[in-house]
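Changelog note: in this version the structure field was regenerated for every chain. One regenerated record is shown below for reference.
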Amino acid sequence: MTRYHNSKRSLEIVLLGDIMQSLLNMRWRQVAVSVGVILMSFAGLSQAQECTVLEDFSGSKPNSFPAGWKPREEPGKNVYVVAKDGDMFFVRARASDGKSSGNGSEADRPVKWNIQEYPILSWKWRPRVFPRGANEQSGKDDSALGVYIGFCPPEDVTVCERSVKGQLGWTDRISLSRLYFSKGVGSLKYIWSEQLPKGLEFESGRKAVKVLEHGAPANPDQWVDERVNVAADYQRRFGAQKLLNPIGLSILTDSDDTQGENPSSVAAGDYADFKVCRE
């Protein structure tokens, strides 16, 4: 009888030990999962803190021209309209008819950020309609989607603005020539092209163009995220020793250059969620 009780007690001790070990293992697994969740949360928070919202259009009313922006020409207000996709605000651009309806006019927004601290620009976009027969490299410079970043020394902004509007006087032209060669004035343009291959880069005056995406997407409703190193592109394309901080952000959806051969040419696309980020 004593041997039986001893065996039973030993079995109970073993079972109790197994149970305690199982509980301990479960506890450690729970701790590990909790730690993993916490680390992932910190990683997400850290990543969010690495970027600053430049423009998310949340301060604009739907069905209106975006607040804080200016059309290059007044009829351009007809081209760019704020809309919503779920909780996200965005600009829907549609360019049709002639220049009198705003076709060919950019929407501009003044910006200021430290490009050395935040060299990356990110945004979302999606093309809706590509302008018929467009080829941005051959003179038919129409795109469903285009994003510009403008550079000019702060003390010369008024001259740069008059240049953009085609309002230069003789003294302005002399000043602008000096700026081009000594101060790295110009703009970077990023496009989504139907014809040109992804990654192609070319010059158009003081405008350095880069094709980020090519052709129609498989899902036209799917947003595509872009992330470009504006500082690196600026230094490489303009050869400037000193980085100028950007002074302007522009978007351009247009079909005016292709309407000569295709009067019904239309361009349309959407823009959202512009941010500047650390590298």
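Spot check on this record: The radius of gyration is 28 Å. Helices lie at 2-49, 157-164, 170-182, 230-238.
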